[in-house]
Each structure stands twice: as C-alpha cells, then as structure tokens.
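User: Can you model how manganese (II) ion sits in this protein?
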Amino acid sequence: PNPPYREGVPDQYYKPAEPAYTPDRKANATFVMLVRNSDLPGIMSSMKQIEDRFNRKFNYPYVFLNDQPFTEEFKKHISALTNAPVEFGLIPQDHWVQPSSIDETRASAAREDMVKNNVIYGGSVPYRNMCRFNSGFFYRQELLQKYKYYWRVEPDVKFFCDVDYDPFLLMQDQQKVYGFTVSLYEYPTTIPTLWDNVKAFIKSNPDFVPADNAMAFLSDDKGESYNRCHFWSNFEIGDMDFWRGEAYSKFFDHLDDQGGFYYERWGDAPVHSIGAALFAKKDQIHFFNDIGYRHEPFQHCPQGEAHTKGKCWCDPGQNFDYEWYSCLNKYDQLFR
Ligand code: GDP
Ligand code: MN
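Assistant: Here's the modeled complex, given as structure tokens:
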C-alpha cells in the first residue's frame, strides 16, 4: 500500500511501513507474569514495552498468575494491550501458602530476627511464599503445561532496545536452558544454610552434575563455599522442562524439606541460579547482551554496536555489567 501522503508535507518525512513479519517458525513459548491485582499499572507498563520492543511482531502468548483471583478490571486492561492470546490463572493454595510442615514458632522467630537486622522483606510471609513458588511451582501450573520456554516479566521494569530476533528460538536452536541480563551478589543474611544444603545434595547425587558445569560462577574455591553470585531472576528466559526434570525437581524438594524458604529467606534467584549452574552445562546458560533491561536499582545497557543495532535509549554510561557488585566477570571467566 502507498504511504499516507498528505498534501503539503514533503515526501522525505514518510518512510514506507516495514513489511509485516511472518516467521517461518516459532518456539513453544510464553511470557509469564506473577502479579497481584494491585500491580496492574506496573505490569501494564512492562507489558506495553514488551509489545512495542518485541512482541507486536512475534505474538507470543501471555500467562498471568496470581494467588488471588484476577479482577475483571485487571483482565480487561491487560487484554487490551495485545493481539496475542492472554490467559489468567489462579495458583492452587497448596502451591502458595506456608506448608503445615513448617514450625511456625521457629519461622516467626526467624522473621522477627530479620526485621531487627533490617533484612529486606525479612518480616514478610507473602514474599517467602512468592520465592518458594517461583523456585519450585510456577512451571507446574496448569496453564503452563503446554509450554516449554518462558520469559518472566515483572511490574515496572524497562526494556531499552528493540529485540528484532526471536530469543526463544535462540534458546531452542542452541539448546540453552537459562538466559539472564543482570547478575549480582545475594545478601548473606537471607541464605545462612543454603550452601550447606546444596553441598549435601550434590554429594548424594553426583550424577546430576555434568563435568562442564558452571560451579566456577558460584564458588571461588571449587565448591567449598558460595560466593553468593546469582542471576537476577526478575528477568529470565528459560526452559521449563529443565526445571521439570529429575535433577532440579529433586533439588527443589530437598531444599523445600529443609524449610529454608521460611526459616531463612531463600530467594528464587539463588535457587534457580544454583540449579542452572550445577545441573546444566555452562554453555547452556546465555547472557542476553542485546536485551537492554532495568529493574530498580540496576540496569544492563548494551554497549557499542549492540546499542546501535537495538536502537537502545539507555545511557551506555549507566551499565551495571562490570560494577563492583556485578557477577558478570565470573560468568565471563567460565569461558576463558
Ligand atoms: P523484588 O523484585 O524482589 O523487590 O520483589 P517484587 O515485589 O517485585 O516481587 C517479585 C514478583 O512477584 C513480582 O512480579 C510481583 O508482582 C510478584 N509478587 C510478589 N508478592 C506477591 C504476592 O503476594 N502475590 C502475587 N500474586 N504476586 C506477588
Ligand atoms: Mn521486582
């Protein structure tokens, strides 16, 4: 079709529209957003950017999950943002609430202690439910069973660059299981006994750990101690069949049996990261360098050519990659 010429407006102000993108193949993939009804403005902001930067062209579906029923208002506003299919799921109570096997006296004492020590979210039970859910239950939800790959999106994040290729197909074609944009150190007070439990698990299940794993990302002394590096899980592109597999499933159950999601405040970021780094091969973990991304208070801004190619709008000088608190150098070292 002709561009919409208007009388009196010089031709050079019009560029013909890009031809519609018709992919010859697609991955079996979905976006996943775990949110509350009150997160509506923040998740609309994130989703609008996903649509504009990537998905208006690729049309991957969305799955929204919540421990409470989504309101009609929520569903209406979300569905209006996309042409892609959108589904809304209610999380079963037993995938969300603190299990009855947890000693509440011990758990509440731990919370009070963390509040006194100003541990972020240290007093919160819902935050712990969320971390446990993201660690071991999201990929078991009914609405996600039909999908293999997922892209996790949180409220109020920013996507700075155009994503003109299909990251899900990259995962599939290169047999990746986990993709990240930002990595950093975990707060030690949230995971006092996590590493001891990891060590016990791999000692009794050595066959789950391939030779070319990414232990060197997690530990500076060959596994003796945890250096607290993890991939920031508010952004994830991953293979749910990896989480559903025997190694990670048994690993999660082992951790869950210890009760550390409640007696401490284990996050889904270190749990996923340790799982991916130990039970996958190191080259199955992908750094999405070309996806410019911000979740407060850190951002990854592509540098140089990648910035130009993605038409990124972030300031290249504002980039967490090699700041002192970033773990990207440890990821790089895996491949040296
Ligand atoms: P932070 O990034 O660690 O500060 O934690 P967030 O508050 O962003 O929570 C992480 C993710 O879980 C976000 O997608 C939230 O919307 C979601 N989330 C956190 N708590 C709850 C909750 O109680 N219910 C539901 N449905 N989602 C939650
Ligand atoms: Mn967040």
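A couple of observations from the model: The mean pLDDT is 96. Residues 63 and 87 are 5 Å apart (CA to CA).
User: Helpful, thanks.
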